[in-house]
Amino acid sequence: MAISKKMKKQIKGAYKSAGATKKRKQTWSLSIGDLVEVKSSRSDDLPSIGVVVKDNDDGYYMVMTKSGRKWHKAVKLRCIEKAETPNACK
Fold first, then answer.
1. CA 20, CA 27: separation in Å to the nearest integer?
2. Domain of residue 55, residue span
3. What is the CATH number of the domain that holds 58?
4. What are the Cα distances from residue 31, in Å, to 26, 69, 82?
5. What kind and span of H or E run contains 15?
6. Is the model's pTM score more than 0.70?
């Protein structure tokens, strides 16, 4: 038995609207000026320490370390010390 075009469109629209309401947004507790430890992807490297310079709102942060500025995932960062004032570098 074939399903009509109208019924297919209704089902497709129902799926789209159901998915749009369930989007989650991950929030991170880092802000600009925080002192962070950057975990290395290689096991033989020691973690480096830096300061958060930019926030990209999608889970990536630009961190200034002794080796320069690099973008890192928030998962790889561990906060050591919070900045005294929020968004001190803006």
1. 19
2. 35-81
3. 2.30.30
4. 14, 16, 8
5. helix 5-21
6. no
